[in-house]
Amino acid sequence: MKVVSAEYITSVVSAKKSPELRWPEFAFAGKSNVGKSSLINCLVNKKKLVKTSSTPGKTQMINFFGINNKLCFADLPGYGFAKVPDSVRKHWGLMVEDYVKTRETLLGVIFIVDIRRGMTELDWGLRDWLNAYDKDYIIIASKCDKLKRNEKNKQISKMRKELKEEGSDDVLAFSSKTGEGKKELWDWVLQKADLKRT
């Protein structure tokens, strides 16, 4: 998809305060520091649309972005090893759960996993949670440029085998650095949104 505009809309600390948009919406979810922000920036061809940080837990709100005045991307707070108080982490979980359950325009979740780590216990928990709420999702194995080709292929095969045994969909290798997987991810988004590639 040719991105002609990608703009920050707003950030919220409560799903009830989410913007009233009627565009097809896609959420980006994953562990803290898994590369959500870099992935979004790669998709929209903007290096600084979403602020990136090496500090886990930097994203503490749901951040909304408008794409071509046709789509909405929602960057969700990361989960896992974020260095934040338990009370804050609990609030994030409740906020995200409320968002996923109630957001009528949400068509799919881009579920990001670090290819070097594979599916962790927390990732399996999110997958089960998305299945329980009957939400469409695609699993992205991010940072694939960090591995040599043989290592990447071996890890993808391992993840696919594990996920197939658990009844999940396929895995897409992705690199924000090289752009690998970018076209395939856009194809998935546009198909779900019933939009043509431009």
Commentary on this structure:
The chain has 198 residues and is of the alpha/beta class. The chain has one domain: 3-Layer(aba) Sandwich (Rossmann fold), CATH 3.40.50. Helices cover 34% and strands 21% of the residues. It has five helices and seven strands. It has a seven-stranded mixed sheet, with helices on both faces. It is globular. About 3% of the residues have low confidence.
List keywords for this structure.
198 residues; alpha/beta; Rossmann fold; 7-stranded mixed sheet; 7 strands; 21% strand
Sum this structure up briefly.
With 198 residues, this protein is of the alpha/beta class. It has five helices and seven strands; from the N terminus they run ββαββαβαβαβα. It has a single domain (6-193), classed as 3-Layer(aba) Sandwich (Rossmann fold), CATH 3.40.50.
CATH domain class name: Alpha Beta
Major beta sheet summary: 7 strands, mixed
- In helices, the fraction of residues equals 25-40%
According to CATH, the fold-level topology is Rossmann fold
**Which architecture does the CATH hierarchy give at level 2?**
3-Layer(aba) Sandwich
SSE layout:
Elements: E1 6-12, E2 25-30, H1 36-44, E3 62-67, E4 71-75, H2 86-102, E5 106-114, H3 121-132, E6 137-142, H4 149-165, E7 171-173, H5 182-193
Parallel strand pairs: 2-4, 2-5, 5-6, 6-7
Antiparallel strand pairs: 1-3, 3-4
